[in-house]
Amino acid sequence: MFCPRCGKPYPDDAGACASCGLAFSAAQSLPPKEEGDATGGIIPYKNAPALIAYYCGVFSIIPCFPIGIAAVVLGIKGLKRARENPAVRGQVHAWIGIIAGGLFGLLWAIVTVLVIIGISKGRFGG
């Protein structure tokens, strides 16, 4: 079990959190009931930054590097949220966003710089 205030693990029979001192009621010490959803737990709908990072990372293949930057930033936030509260999940989605967003964001930034250099030297322009 994890403390709802600080997120630290505690034994099932503990009356209070050893880290922050939050007192537990009998209902809090019971294991949480898994909520059913139509996704089967695959989509981390409780971790919005990780989910948005995933989609930004996937769509960062389109030549627009700011989407890749958003994927990296949101992926880091999603990892932090998943670390603080393991029940929200979404680590894989966050990592996909970070890796894909970082790679494609860097790729499109390099392409943009090379095009600007080429235009300034007159290789692409008239």
Question: Can you summarize this structure?
Answer:
The chain is mainly alpha-helical.
Q: Which class best fits the helix and strand makeup?
A: mainly alpha
Q: Count of DSSP helices?
A: 4
Write down the overall geometry.
rod-shaped
Residue stretches low in confidence (pLDDT < 50, at least 5 long) are: none
Overview of this protein structure:
The chain is an all-alpha fold. It has 2 domains: about 1-35, no CATH class; about 45-120, no CATH class. Helices cover about 50% and strands about 0% of the residues. It has 4 helices and no strands. It has helices at about 25-30, 50-60, 65-85, 90-120. The longest helix is centred in the C-terminal third of the chain and has 30 residues, at about 90-120. The chain starts with about 25 loop residues before the first helix and ends in a 6-residue tail after the last helix. The model has no long low-confidence stretch (mean pLDDT about 80).
